[in-house]
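Sanity check record (used in CI):
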Amino acid sequence: MSVYEYRAKTIMGEEKSLREYEGKVLIIANTASKCGFTPQYKELQSLYDQYSEQGLEILGFPCNQFASQEPGSEEEIQEFCELNYGVKFPMFAKVDVKGENIHPLFAWLTKEAPGILGSKAVKWNFTKFLVDRYGNVVSRHSPQTSPMDMKKEIESLLSQQ
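Expected output for Glutathione peroxidase:
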């Protein structure tokens, strides 16, 4: 299995195969607009600006499972991200990243890259998964990890063909 086996609905409601990102290095993050980590949108966009031409793609998945910090509609989320953080990377429709209705992509990501002490569940907003050009999960980064702290790992993956 690889990330390319999954599909997700974009924030505009279009069904999309992640196979469209084949050959790219991916950061997949669950996001929220009313969280202490929300300013990470700015850092994620900065990474996207710096590395997208080299093959980095960032996929944002809004989630309202943590203290209801993503209460808005898809339209409101998209507008918030564009107006406040200039987000240009792909955003997807709201998903569950844990529990009974977990999106299959996040079920796979958390199985492939468990958290601290082997815990599989996503614990909070802005958990970030790094995926190589072949669709394999390379690492999982906690909400506390600044996206900028992932630069060396991203650069290493981008240099691999």
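The helical segments are 40-51, 74-85, 104-112, 151-159. If this sentence no longer matches the regenerated tokens, the check is flagged for review.
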